[in-house]
Amino acid sequence: FSARSQTMGATSEDEGSTGDALDIVLYLFVLGPAVEWCLKSPRVNRGRPGSWRGVSLAVLLLALVAAGKMAWESGTREPNHFETLGVRVDAGTAEIKRAYKTESLKYHPDKTDDPAAPAIFMRMQRAYETLKDPSSRDAYNRFGGKSGDDESGGMTGAAMFYAIWLVLGYLLTMGRASEDARTWAFSGLLALAVVEYQTRVLKYDYLAMVLPHTTVHEKLELLHRLFPPFLHGSRMISQVVFRDIGVYNKMLVEQMHVKVDELGKLAYATQREIAKQGIARPSGVAAPLAAAADGFAKLGGEKAA
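The structure corresponding to this sequence follows.
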């Protein structure tokens, strides 16, 4: 049994490494170009890169990918102890005992010839040994582990998650173009930390009605897996919609200079035409306007020269 457990653990680690590698390939070479196309395509944005239409389509794409990833991971993972016995995570000791007796009779090696029955029966025994005690049941629900004795490991893993992504989030969002992404990412990480504290420590399970058979630990692990695509999408959207105020103001000043030059040339041409026709200069109220026109004409004459 020990050798079998070690083999299963090694297999799980290999599958986890393979899944992480696939995630990197998905984000960098598939999802990244797709989100960039949504944000920059003239057809989607109608000639305005980074428009709300493109941003909405990119957010929808990221949400669909994240939802598909969650559904796939939920469908491929091994059932937890509550699912094995068919009880809710808030079930009491008496209900768990009744469920164990009912389900274990179906798969007792002496009651059925199903070749898979011994393995299922042993899994039910392990589940009942963990869930029959309220303290181990609570620890298993909140921190995971094989038998609910991994409380310190669960807290250490959570702390490592936030430490790693705090550093990576800062490094990946350096630069002025990613300032909005840094704000979004850190706000999301802070919200996730608050939710995790309330569920793991204060024991508020907000998703109990939606996922009644899923442990708190599994729900939080799913939320942890949603943060990387959230950070990735925030970073890409921020870089596309970013507008450098300094460059923008410089462009406006250059455009203003061009307009002033055009106005000066027009005033200069008008003044020459007036001089040819011998029209008298205006006086009284119109005199300041004439002086301003002379100034623009002088500027326009210098530009023309």
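The chain has twelve helices and no strands.
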